[in-house]
Amino acid sequence: MSNQANRIYGYYNARCNLGPEYFIPYLKGYACRPPLEYYYKLYLNSGDPAYTASERTSPTGAYAGIVNLYTTSKDYTTFNTDNLITFEGVRNPAGTIEPGVTIPATYHETMVLQVYPYETNIIEGTANYLDSASNLPTSIPLLNFNVTVAKGIFEGYTNLTLYLNNQGSYTRKVVIS
Question: Domain residues of the chain, as ranges?
């Protein structure tokens, strides 16, 4: 490396404390950015849904649906109509295929977060996980989505984590890093 490159790398190393695999994202302006946080809830204080949904369930416990909702303020009291979240999910129930061999219940889910203007700022991720719940909300406390699309304000972000509180209004926190 040239002296200039060494100085840039030294500055990067001191500032970010990240390994060499992050050097190129740093030069592109993606590394060392603060995480983004978004909040939402599934239910209003009245107990009514805070989302719109199109869903299908079967007597065996299979579920498929799409849910749309807006984010809220950090205290979950005010809706932000500039931020739209869409979930598309399929839950397959557990099943025994022969004595002693049971396939667990799984949930395959895609999450899309769009910030106005919606066509410009999009992050999308997928997750496939074990979940034996029988209702719409996921029953686990944490989900990591594999980011498949990140453009606009989300360009360069690679991690999408969803923290789930499965009580009360079913509040959620999305962290993008």
Answer: 1-32, 33-176
